[in-house]
Design goal:
The chain is mostly helical. It has one domain. It has five helices and no strands.
């Protein structure tokens, strides 16, 4: 099935990156799906990424950082279920194309976790 073309503007990309950076410091290191978030973040930063990969990644990251969720993030135990589902679905759909970001994502996540422990 061919995906319809979705226009991702440079502003969309910047917004996703800026909002995600803020959460990277505190929230992301504690989440079980943190590695997937960092891989999507690295994909969105990649200037050579194709729009077919960028569109779902940008949408997933903006949804993740948005306070307007299907399930509010402040609900203990279930707050990130909708985020994890969307992130997981996008990661599965991108498959092996995210593999190139795995080593760098693991390094980033390790640094983020170390910084979070120091606080």
């Amino acid at each position: 099935m061919k995906m319809p073309k979705v226009e991702i503007t440079p502003e969309d990309r910047r917004t996703a990156l800026l909002l995600c950076r803020r959460l990277m410091r505190k929230t992301v290191p504690r989440l079980p799906f943190a590695l997937d978030i960092v891989k999507l973040f690295l994909l969105v930063r990649d200037r050579k990424a194709k729009w077919q990969d960028l569109a779902p990644a940008v949408i997933a990251l903006i949804y993740f950082v948005s306070p307007m969720d299907a399930v509010p993030d402040v609900l203990p135990g279930v707050g990130f279920v909708d985020d994890a589902t969307l992130i997981g679905t996008v990661v599965l759909s991108l498959g092996a194309r995210l593999g190139v970001y795995e080593p760098q994502a693991r390094e980033w996540l390790e640094r983020l976790r170390k910084k979070a422990l120091k606080r």
